[in-house]
Write the structure tokens for this entry.
Amino acid sequence: MVQAAVQRSDFGELIAPTYSPANLIPQIGEGSYVWDTNGRLYIDLAGGVAVTGLGHAHPELIAELRAQSELVWHVGNVFTNEPVLRLASQLTESTFASRVFFANSGAEANEAALKLARKVAFDKGAAASGKTEIVAFQNSFHGRTLFTVGVGGQPKYSTPFAPLPSSIKHLPFNDCEAALAGISEKTCAVIFELVQGESGVRPATEAFVNALRTRCDEVDALLIFDEVQTGVGRTGDLFAYMGYHVIPDILTTAKALGNGFPIGAMLTRSDLAEYFTAGSHGSTFGGNPLAAAVAAKVMEIVRRPETLEGVKVRHAFCMQRLEDIAARTGVFSEVRGRGMLIGAELSERYRGQSSRLVDCGYAAGVFTLMAGPDVLRLTPSLIIPLDVLAEAMDALSEAVTQFLT
């Protein structure tokens, strides 16, 4: 049976309207190049929203997926499997953690972290005295489940779904004084992003991260680092916390971990993991062999010194080219970020128009992202060749020219 050709217009007829995708359909990806269904070529500086950290169709990942697909796809959590044990070993030997819980996404990893924090307080008897509060930060983003959307500090995502889970407090980001005052004996956990991605690519200051660690220790609260977007090499360190030299109690990651194959992970210490007793939490597909095999190969490649060193080189190149565009056109007021997570904030006269700039990028042959209405976000492959990156920056410069006309 011959399948009918699909068109972009089919989206409105077939898919729930939670998204408003671009008026093109990517069909083939190779490295940092993407071709749409009309055969047009683009350079990908979006990376599937910080997911394809090793680009499209990486040959080592394809080989790993093919090999595992000929063995076993799924066994459920009544068994363990070899790929997930290899992946867990890689994650624990290269981080502060000694235990891992696997899920399918960043939201699920964060859900697990928040549930674990509440359960630790409950099992210790602390919850009975009111130690149930979770502290998060304004303009944060932690996922789309009811719990994580409530913890996220953006009312536009959470208000329509009220009433939300209770005992959640939002404090100003990067405000040490407010954090020290707002985190109390009733706080069981503090969760935050080392770089706020969705709200503008805003890195945390070292003073702020240290203040959170100190205050959590004082009030016996767990410190959770949401590294869903910053983890697995994105910032030039294997995980962003390594660049801050502050150790969390729990870390979550996803996105680039599977390079497009859905997987998420919550990492923690053994003494905390023990509170997740048998049956207290779970995931049907979490840590399935296909996802784990791919993620283990991703970790192997990203951990290579040349990969992480290359991120720093690419960061410097992107920053220079974006600052050159800003100086020439005045379209950007600030360029900021870490590694291959970069935000270019639009100048006052262009605020609210990041979506239009992204559209101009499509016309110029380059994929970029928004980080809110005022910021252009770049999250390309960590290993994009420098000549391709230069080509992409030329296309982005052309997009800016179109944007200004």
